[in-house]
Structures are given as structure tokens and as C-alpha cells.
Specification:
The chain is mostly helical. The protein has 11 helices and no strands. It has helices at residues 3-11, 23-39, 43-60, 64-70, 72-88, 91-112, 117-128, 132-142, 144-161, 171-202, 221-243. It is globular and about 60 Å long. The termini are far apart.
Length: 245
């Protein structure tokens, strides 16, 4: 991509559109939100985390229902973990953990839908200084859910072609169908992820230093403003935890 095209990409960034941000910014924002959730074990601090999560939801411009359906399996796992913690530790910690896990799962789904495989790889390699192998493995993990969603769409298209309506029925009926297809979908997605890793090896993804980014990684005022907002929120969370002891 030439300089004029790169400049056009950078100029089109808007605070209200997460998809236009630098890939590193998206990953940094998720890390900062995770840190806010990690330190927030008081209701006052948790409110800050919820507010920051809502900010991300507002700027992703992604269909909320689609993101919820994409994260439903992870929601169930989060619920099970929180119930176990509530039983063996305390109800308050279990409730806090449930809110945190649900929000982080939802936000991870939102952010992943705004990033391509190349964006994730570039963001991990250039933004965190990871070597090629580590960046590839982490990118495979972070893009697993979007790949799973594509596999789910492929199965639904095949069902429609055979005269079956996969979206028909009540919510519980849809959930039951989704659970029945979960295991084969996971299996196919894992196989495809492995093939993708092999393809990346064959296409000389062995060195992120030799590989050029699809888009020039360049911070603009948009990236700086959103990162500053989350850094201030993290600092406020830490300060509140110290004051509320």
C-alpha cells in the first residue's frame, strides 16, 4: 500500500468507529479494560469498568444481537464458573465475577469482529513486541470465535439449501440446535485453524520483522484520545480501590 492510501486510512479514523482504529489501539483498549476489571472489586470501581465497556460497545457499530449470539457459549461457561465461585467463596465475589466475565466476553467478541487476521497479527507483533511464533499462536486464539461464527454460517447455509430453516422456532429451540451443532462446529474450526497456521508458515510468516503490515501502523489523535480515556479510567479505578479500603 502506497503512502497516499495509508494517509487516507489514517484520515478516515473517527472516535465513533472502532473498526477504523489502529490494530494496536484495539488490543491496548481491551488490555486496559481487563486491568480495570481485575482491580475493580468494589461497586464504585465496577461501575467505571461497566462504563468503559459501554463506551466500546457504542463505538464498535456492531449488531448487538449478533454479538450476543456469537458469545452465548462463552456466557454459559462464565455463568458456570461464577456459580461455582459463589458456592465455594461468596455470593458477592461470584456476582462480581459473573459481571466481569460477561462484559469481557462480550467486548472481546465486539473487538474481534472489527479485526482481520492480518490486523491481529500486526497488532500483537508490533504493539507488544512478540516474536513470530507467539504472535501467530495468540492471533489464532483471538480469531477463533470469528472463525467459529463463519463455520456456523456455513452450516446454516447448507441447512437452508436442504430445505431446513435453522432460524425457525423459539429461542430455546434455536439454543438447542446451536448446542447440538457446537461440537462439530468446534472440531471443524480447530482443524481449519491448524491449516491456517500451516499456510502462514508456508507463506513466510516465520518472521514478523521481515513481513510488511497490510496497513501502516500509525497512531493518530483518535488513537491517542481513546487510549488516554482508558488510562485515566484505570488510574481512577486504582485510586478508588486504595481510598475505599
Amino acid at each position: 500500500m502506497d503512502n497516499s492510501a495509508n494517509n487516507k486510512v489514517n484520515k478516515e479514523r473517527r472516535l465513533g468507529n472502532l473498526a477504523s482504529y489502529d490494530p494496536r489501539t484495539k488490543l491496548y483498549v481491551f488490555v486496559l479494560l481487563t486491568l480495570i476489571m481485575a482491580v475493580g472489586w468494589k461497586w464504585q470501581v465496577l461501575i467505571i469498568g461497566i462504563a468503559m465497556a459501554l463506551v466500546i460497545v457504542a463505538i464498535t457499530e456492531v449488531d448487538l444481537y449478533k454479538a450476543l449470539m456469537l458469545s452465548i457459549r462463552a456466557f454459559v461457561i462464565s455463568l458456570i464458573i461464577s456459580i461455582i465461585v459463589a458456592i465455594f467463596v461468596s455470593i458477592k465475589i461470584g456476582a462480581f465475577l459473573l459481571i466481569k466475565l460477561l462484559l469481557l466476553t462480550l467486548i472481546a467478541g465486539f473487538i474481534s469482529q472489527t479485526m482481520k487476521q492480518s490486523d491481529v497479527l500486526d497488532g500483537l507483533a508490533k504493539g507488544f513486541g512478540l516474536n513470530a511464533q507467539t504472535a501467530k499462536r495468540l492471533s489464532a486464539v483471538l480469531t477463533f470465535v470469528p472463525h467459529l461464527e463463519r463455520e456456523k454460517k456455513r452450516v446454516k447455509m447448507a441447512q437452508r439449501a436442504r430445505g431446513v430453516d435453522p432460524d425457525g422456532g423459539s429461542f430455546m429451540s434455536k439454543l438447542r440446535k446451536d448446542i447440538m451443532l457446537a461440537i462439530p462446529n468446534y472440531k471443524c474450526t480447530i482443524i481449519k485453524s491448524g491449516r491456517q497456521m500451516t499456510a502462514m508458515e508456508m507463506r513466510q510468516y516465520t518472521s514478523v520483522k521481515r513481513r510488511k503490515c497490510v496497513h501502516e501502523l500509525k497512531f493518530t489523535w483518535v488513537d491517542e484520545v481513546i487510549l488516554l480515556i482508558f488510562i485515566i479510567a484505570l488510574a481512577a479505578s486504582i485510586l478508588l480501590m486504595l481510598v475505599l479500603k
